[in-house]
Structure formats: structure tokens, C-alpha cells
Amino acid sequence: MSDISGLEPVATFCGNCNCGCPQLFVDPAAPAERRVVLTDDFGQRVQMSADQFASLIEEAKAGKLDGIA
């Protein structure tokens, strides 16, 4: 799994198992454009800015991602 040392945890998605659930972190040491970190249960990570993350949240709240789930 990805090294998460130094990251501040925000949320764990699922959390009902021991499978290495996806997690959301803030990396205070990262440049602003890479501060939000999303890890998956395969050891991969996505890094984005707070503005990009806010846009993702806005689209989710508007229902634009409902067809995925």
C-alpha cells in the first residue's frame, strides 16, 4: 500500500472490513496543487488541489456521479 506517513486522515470509505479501504488525506507538506490525497485498496493514489477536490464534491452533490454507483 502507499506510504501514508505524514498524511492527515480525513475519511475512510467502507471501513467495514480489513481490505485496505480507500482513504482521503491531506498532505500538509505537499505543494498546494497536490495537497489532497485519495488512496485506493490497490496501493495507488491520486493527488489534487483543494480546488479540484471542491469541484469533485460539487459535482457529486449535484448528482453528476450518481450513475457510477
- Uncertain parts: none
What's the story with the biggest beta sheet?
A: 4 strands, antiparallel
Strand content: 15-25%
Termini separation comes to 24 Å
The secondary structure category is alpha+beta
> Could you tell me the number of beta strands?
4
Cα-atom Rg, whole angstroms? 13 Å
SSE map:
Elements: E1 8-12, E2 23-26, E3 36-39, E4 45-48, H1 50-61
Antiparallel strand pairs: 1-2, 2-3, 3-4
Describe the structure.
- The chain is of the alpha+beta class and 69 residues long.
- It has one helix at 50-61, and strands spanning 8-12, 23-26, 36-39, 45-48.
- It has one domain (8-61).
- It has one helix and four strands.
- A hairpin with a 5-residue loop joins strand 3 (36-39) and strand 4 (45-48).
- It is flat and about 35 Å long.
Name the features.
69 residues, alpha+beta, 4-stranded antiparallel β-sheet, 25% strand
Task: Summarize the structure in short.
The chain is α+β, with helices and mostly antiparallel strands and 69 residues long. It has 1 helix and 4 strands.
